[in-house]
Records
---
Amino acid sequence: MKRMLVVLAAAMTCAFGADIALADERTGHFKRNADGSRDCGHLLASGNPDYPPYLWQSADGQHLEGAAADFLKQVGELAGVRIEVLHAGSWGRVQQSMRDGTLDMIAGAFLTLPRLEYMDYFYPAFQGTRTVIWTRDNLDLNYQHWSDLRGLEGLTVINNSFGQDFDTYAAQNLSITEVPSLEQGLRMLSYNRGEYLIYEEFPGKAVAAREHITNIRSYETPVSTENLYLTMSHRSECNTGALRGRITQAILKLLADDAMQNMLEASIRRWGENTN
């Protein structure tokens, strides 16, 4: 796959610089004990800020809110730690912060082989998702299989994964342009600057509704169905067996209580109230 990064010259350079500045302000500022060691009663987390109803930027501009943030904070409460979910820049920048160890956790990531190199995954997954194909409503791709996308010009958001199997297939067979944000990808699709967009169902619907993009639609057949996991950076000073065990126990309890479903429904309502 020819994965071309869309570079918007000076505008993109400024945006990237601002993103780094924001991330540097919020990440790596860990609480310390009197002897200089990490205070592991307070963890810093982040995630994809362009991901409603799971995550989006809060009104204060400093944090993320949404169902995944709510779930992670409740996990922390059950595990005996406070987990602060920061707005730490773009999804790509958040992943780099996990590599650097300037964030402790991510509130929702797909499992891919490259990501295993720099973070641990907590099992089981806390939520399943569907990735779908989006097109303009006047274009019918008759999409049923990945091979139906061959020869077409696709769009997706930079640093996104849609499962290891699809990522491998796409790299070898498809032509997909990467763009900085879901909003930009949906607008490009709407303006006929791509034939399809690959993105998850709920976030795509949420952002399209907010931006009043009405000339697009998605296909029922999913590209992939993937699980979202909580993760912890290999380089986090708080990444210990004892803490990982407490977090896993907390995840199991919340899943048994069906807590994520309630949080997701509340988050969808909150997103709608805050954006309409």
---
Amino acid sequence: MPNAITRSLQLAAVRKDAAALTAVEAGSGQRVYTFKASDGDFDRYSDRLSVKGWRVDAYNPNGVVLFNHDDGTQAARTGAEPALPIGKGRVYVEGDALMIDIVFDDEDDFARKVERKVAKGILNAVSVRYLMLPGQYRQNERGGLAVPVLVAERRGQCAACALAIEQGEVITYERAVGALHMACADRPADRRRNLYPGRCELCNARLMRGQGELFVTEWQDNDGKWRRRWLARCADVQACNARIMSRG
């Protein structure tokens, strides 16, 4: 499966005028700046990130905001004083977008300078560093990467490996086959392991549970509804062909 990929995403602020950007949280006295971190459209890498694919649980407990992604790595190599966060952020989903509320550190001189430029609309974008997890993305039509866009609404079965798909699990889906684990997205999409006793549609040999493979056929009736039928076949093609030939 593909390795994990770390990338950065940059999108404009939700509100650019100073009056709207400097909203004050009730009772806190904090100036909160709200940005759209991701909108599900293609980014500069031609990646397309569905809002359903974001996992933010690891960020929000320590939601630090950095300037230009400076996490101190360069300082560690050069011996310079490491850069510190300029504020804190809280990430959440709103509609079809990933949002972030940012509060700048008003006791940090540099953070106050950045905040003033944000309030004036000179700086009006955020850049999100994100990690694409192995097996959780595929190539899209533009040559970039696509993160999952579907979540299983109920418990079911993967059409590639036949193991369980749990409710709420991020999946991929193909009409002619059905739901698949993201880890199975690159497996042949027109077959799955046979889970039930039956007969090979070609040679009529008896197949026990776990033997052979299932192939799907799908068609659209005159009423516009899609119909699907799974057909069992022998996994041993040579033996299957021999039985067919022996029947004359």
